[in-house]
Design a protein that fits this description.
Layout (H helix, E strand, L loop, with lengths): L16 H7 L11 H25 L10 H28 L13
Helix pairs in contact: 1-2, 2-3
Length: 110
């Protein structure tokens, strides 16, 4: 999950990307949103990406925890999937505000 969202390590493309996104605030297309809304959007993106990363990590320990099991892992993974979709939506909005091309996800590394 962390690799999919580009948030696994410092070498991944979206790791701490919010810092770069905030530096681009002056590039915001004002016809799409104002700069204050853009800053709020970037903050929401960072929060969702952090939540996704944390939940993905937590799900990996779901079976090992007391009262854990496959059902617990499945619940965590479903919640993680929902957060990934929300995070992707926020990223698309950030790209739109900057009038940047929205690319398809990179193929999985082998």
């Amino acid at each position: 999950v962390q690799e999919y969202i580009g948030y696994k390590s410092i070498d991944d493309p979206l790791f701490k990307a919010d810092k770069i996104m905030l530096k681009g605030v002056s590039l915001v297309d004002e016809s799409v949103m104002d700069q204050e809304d853009y800053v709020d959007l970037v903050e929401r993106f960072r929060e969702k990406a952090d939540q996704t990363s944390l939940l993905a990590y937590t799900s990996s320990w779901g079976e090992a925890n007391p009262n854990g099991g496959k059902e617990v892992v499945d619940e965590y993974l479903e919640r993680t999937r929902e957060l990934v979709m929300e995070t992707e939506g926020l990223l698309r909005k950030v790209l739109g505000a900057l009038d940047l091309e929205i690319l398809e996800p990179s193929p999985k590394k082998v």
